[in-house]
Amino acid sequence: MAKAVGRDLISSLQKRFLSTSTGPSSSFTVDFLVRTCGLSSDSALSISKKLQIDRDKQNQSRRVVRFLKSHGFSDTHIAKMVGKHPLILYCGVESNLKPKVEFLIQSGFGGKDLHELVLANPKIFWRSLNSHIKPSVDFLKLYLDSNEKILSSMRRASWLLSADFRSSLQKNVDFLIKEGLSVQKVTNLMVSQPRTVMRKHEKFVDAVNDVEKLGIEPRQPAFVNALRVILQMSRPTWKMKMEVMKSLGWSEEDSLMAFKRDPLWIALSAEKIRRGMDFYLNTLELESESIIAYPKFLMYSIDTRLVPRYNVLKVLKSKKLISPDRDIKWLITMNEKTFLQKFVIKFQKEIPGIMDMYCGSAADGTG
């Protein structure tokens, strides 16, 4: 019902201010948008085809701009906001903008935080303060215990405060907790993957059930990433990935075992998986069991990580500077800073060109 009312309001505003005129009124609109709102001429011209500002009624729009500037919004901020949602110029200052901005400031979103929150999605001004914005903020603060976490979540899902949180987010969070996911993990999910937990409730429940059927429970470390993958991947794509792995010698049980250990690998493209398997099995001569046990191997870049390290280690072994029995697969997992220090910088005197070789391989992907 609220969504329908919102759509009707926006539609009526659009009809009220719609204009395809290229006459004096349109010229005034372009001039107003450029001079008062800081838009480029091209952007102003584009908006003027849909929105008309009457010379006699410009004061309303000027009040909006003055109000925004009084709260520290720069010309660039206003241009960006009007460019995205020009109808903001017709919002009432006293009846709409002021009470909502004051509430956000009272909730701790002042200064730059206010600017970031509003710029992320100015549509917040189209939602009711009492029936939507306040309950949304209250709900978010149950799990996101700082405004920085709320802003971090909004950076990944700009519609966080304008979407109907009751129909999806709240239901999904309640369901996850009921299924046994800890509050801390729910918080982490809302911050790092808000789009995952904002999916339609029915689809979300199906995905949770699918993950559990695969043998991954909410209390297990892999659950959140498994849920993310299942929500993003269609059933035909899942089946295709299983077929790809079968063609590379894995059974379905092998693939599921690897998925339980690190679900994210299965979201890789079929081409990347094939290239990775070929490199590990044929160049590094690893056993498939090693990849099943540590599927994150497949997520490393062949060109910028695997080939450069392989080239360096091959030279070091040939010069007998490291043991030929050194287990290469664990050297691949080493972080970049440590690998560079222990296997490149350390041997620059013995092999003067080793840094160039390492960086050159990383740059062009040669092997």
From TrEMBL:
Domain of life: Eukaryota
Keywords for the protein's UniProt record, in alphabetical order: Transcription, Transcription regulation, Transcription termination, Transit peptide
GO molecular function: nucleic acid binding
Short name of any one Pfam family annotated for the protein: mTERF
One record GO biological process: DNA-templated transcription termination
InterPro entries for the chain: MTERF (IPR003690), MTERF_sf (IPR038538)
SMART domains assigned: Mterf
Family: Belongs to the mTERF family.
Name the UniProt record assigns to this protein: Uncharacterized protein
